[in-house]
């Protein structure tokens, strides 16, 4: 049997080679909800990735799915220019972040499209009928709603589960303000048969519900704490409490950290925000102080290597 691999924009790599990883971020992203703040500038993406690499960063997982300006061809250029491994995503976001016309174009072939982007290549210019690039996605991104799942979320998750069963690729979930976590687990894992080890629950730091975080951890899924230093969310000031508490109850091996930079202003190198380097500049030393150097290193290195690796089919 072939060994597990991490599928990056420049090809498959051994999970041991992934290195220090920002497990949830965006180098290219656009949304109708953030007009004028699009991440669409190649030099800025290179500058941000370089700043991350200068602090020891070796890999970035971009959770921008189809229809959000993910620019996978540019991701490959960033990876070549900086030496940082980059994982791209297929999948579909909430309707609020996606052109409804695009959703209608892919509705009858969504699972097939996900599988194709994971195994053959992603579509150029986010056009589901466009040229197939020789760059493959390495994960599937889907999204829940606020304290529930609407029909769009359920339909997309069903397609994501079908694509997972065909390819083995992991599924990352945007949880709106950290909610609907148990609904997603019930649907994806309970109803659609996706193993929890292939599920990454995103934005758990956006809800300070420690009981919910513990229940999610008990499922066996990976837990992504992302988007540090957002003043309008329960992030920095409770982040360490959550991480330390989950580690103390035996769930350190499921924890992931990411920057989730979604606007130009949030970038460190060009926008004045905390950006991707914040993870290693501030969060890592704090985590080392709380947990110890090696346990903290494992959260940045070993956990992403397992979360994003799979038996490529």
From TrEMBL:
InterPro entries per UniProt: Metal_Hydrolase (IPR032466), Phosphotriesterase (IPR001559)
N6-carboxylysine sites (modified residues): 141
Keyword set includes Glycoprotein: no
Gene3D superfamilies: Metal-dependent hydrolases
Alphabetized UniProt keyword annotations: Hydrolase, Metal-binding
Family: Belongs to the metallo-dependent hydrolases superfamily. Phosphotriesterase family.
Protein name as catalogued: Phosphotriesterase
């Amino acid at each position: 049997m072939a060994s597990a691999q991490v599928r990056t924009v420049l090809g498959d790599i051994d999970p041991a080679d992934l290195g220090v990883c920002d497990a949830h971020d965006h180098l290219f992203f656009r949304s109708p909800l953030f007009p004028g703040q699009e991440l669409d500038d190649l030099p800025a993406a290179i500058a941000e990735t370089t700043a991350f690499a200068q602090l020891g960063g070796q890999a970035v997982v971009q959770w921008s799915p189809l229809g959000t300006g993910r620019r996978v061809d540019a991701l490959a250029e960033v990876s070549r220019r900086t030496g940082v491994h980059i994982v791209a995503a297929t999948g579909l976001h909430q309707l609020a972040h996606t052109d409804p016309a695009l959703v209608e174009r892919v509705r009858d072939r969504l699972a097939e499209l996900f599988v194709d982007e994971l195994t053959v290549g992603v579509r150029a210019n986010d056009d589901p009928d466009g040229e197939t690039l020789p760059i493959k996605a390495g994960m599937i991104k889907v999204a829940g709603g606020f304290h529930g799942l609407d029909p769009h979320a359920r339909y997309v998750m069903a397609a994501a589960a079908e694509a997972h069963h065909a390819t083995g690729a992991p599924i990352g979930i945007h949880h709106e303000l950290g909610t609907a976590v148990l609904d997603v687990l019930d649907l994806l894992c309970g109803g659609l048969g996706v193993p929890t080890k292939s599920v990454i629950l995103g934005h758990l730091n956006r809800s300070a519900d420690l009981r919910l975080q513990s229940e999610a951890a008990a499922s066996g899924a990976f837990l992504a704490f992302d988007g540090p230093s957002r003043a309008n969310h329960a992030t920095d000031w409770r982040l360490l409490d959550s991480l330390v508490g989950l580690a103390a109850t035996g769930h350190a091996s499921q924890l992931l950290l990411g920057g989730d930079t979604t606007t130009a202003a949030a970038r460190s190198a060009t926008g004045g925000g905390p950006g991707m380097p914040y993870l290693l500049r501030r969060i890592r030393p704090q985590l080392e102080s709380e947990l110890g150097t090696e346990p903290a290193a494992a959260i940045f290195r070993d956990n992403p290597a397992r979360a994003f690796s799979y038996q490529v089919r």
